[in-house]
Design goal:
Length: 384
């Protein structure tokens, strides 16, 4: 069975002035990756890249190699994280701009707007006084900025490599919940798409399949206990904002089901406020079998597949570490995902891979010294 696997792609593997200012000269994602240490016996840290090394995304040769590896694994394309903070403020745009302008690599792509503020703890949480210091604040100035943002993205939308759904360029939003003006944003972009000869924009919101808060019409939130049996209300609430589809992320749901939601919420609260506690561990195969909600089989819901997870290089013991996240167990996870989407039409048979290269989240499929090409080979065995 065919599946359209689209891999999230992090561009923070090259220095920028803002990171130099706040973290020191030369800071990139590799800074956190390289300094990581094991938190318990048998903990796989640090993660060291193999074939591509500690690469710099300013090099076109690296981008070509990445595309070739992805192509061989059966991945349809990359979904580049795109940082637009409002009033024309952008960060980490260079790698994608060079891909767009050069025409290389000749490999499909789309954009995901990472519409969240950057504070000091975005990339490294030391739990110190500087953790919440603002690096770049996410702003939504209104129609004029929405128009400028669209015009910036328009050359990408017109590129023959751009990934489409129903003939429309696919555009992903990281945070639909806290973007109170998101309905207006979608309206403006749809109007601009028509004016510029596009059939529209296919808007997808990243959404956890289980939440503890419901967004009211005015953008405020109502707290409640999570519904672990159905994600219908969560998905319908987001779709009602004007989105065409949802990229569901089932990790929180899976963790709650695997150990009980009261225990899970309590453990997370304690680790958030007591960073000296030992790291939480999750057994990958036992947890990810609960990754998909029944509604992930809806035609316009696109589930996430997750190869590994270990954000300790960024957050220390604050978040759980997945153990037994092996290529063999990832392969079974992919096969489970294919069963969820098997009744959809070919165009909507989409899985988002989270992620291609989130190395400091222990969430990647690029070759490393421990597993080599194992995660890529797992994808290839299933997709090809």
């Amino acid at each position: 069975m065919n599946a359209r696997v689209i891999a999230y792609y992090l561009p923070q593997f090259h220095p920028i002035p803002e990171n130099d200012e706040h973290w020191g000269a030369g800071f990139t994602e590799w800074t956190n990756v390289a300094k990581a240490k094991p938190l318990f016996r048998g903990h796989y840290q640090p993660h060291v890249p193999a074939d591509l090394g500690f690469y710099d995304l300013r090099l076109p040769e690296v981008r070509e190699q990445q595309a070739q590896l992805a192509r061989e694994a059966g991945i349809e394309g990359f979904c580049y994280w795109h940082y637009w903070f409002g009033n024309g403020k952008m960060l980490l745009q260079r790698p994608f701009e060079e891909v767009l302008q050069s025409g290389k690599p000749d490999f499909p792509f789309c954009l995901a707007w990472a519409n969240h503020s950057w504070t000091m703890d975005t990339w490294n949480n030391d739990h110190g006084k500087t953790a919440k210091r603002m690096i770049a604040e996410q702003l939504y100035p209104g129609d004029e900025d929405y128009i400028a943002h669209f015009n910036y993205c328009l050359p990408a939308f017109r590129d023959k490599r751009y990934i489409t759904v129903e003939g429309k360029p696919l555009f992903v939003l990281f945070d639909a919940y806290f973007f109170t003006d998101v309905k207006r944003f979608i309206e403006v972009w749809r109007e601009l798409a028509q004016k510029n000869g596009l059939p529209g924009i296919y808007f997808v919101a990243i959404t956890k399949s289980t939440t503890t808060a419901t967004r009211r019409e005015d953008g405020t939130f109502e707290r409640h206990m999570p519904d672990l049996k159905s994600s219908a209300q969560v998905y319908n609430d987001i779709l009602s904002l004007g989105f065409d589809g949802i990229n569901s992320f089932g990790k929180p749901r899976a963790e709650m089901i695997s150990e009980g939601h009261y225990i899970n919420l309590a453990r997370k609260w304690l680790h958030l406020h007591l960073p000296f506690l030992p790291a939480m561990k999750y057994d990958y195969p036992k947890v990810v079998k609960h990754m998909f909600a029944p509604e992930d089989a809806w035609d316009n819901i696109f589930p996430s597949i997750m190869p590994q997870w270990d954000r300790s290089p960024r957050v220390g013991t604050e978040e759980g570490v997945y153990v037994n996240a092996t290529p063999e167990n990832f392969e079974q996870h992919i096969r489970h995902a294919l069963k969820i989407i098997e009744k959809k039409d070919n165009e909507h048979r989409i899985l988002f891979l989270r992620a291609w290269n989130e190395w400091a989240e222990g969430n990647y499929v690029e070759p490393d010294l421990k597993y080599g090409h194992g995660f890529l080979q797992a994808l290839a065995r299933v997709l090809k």
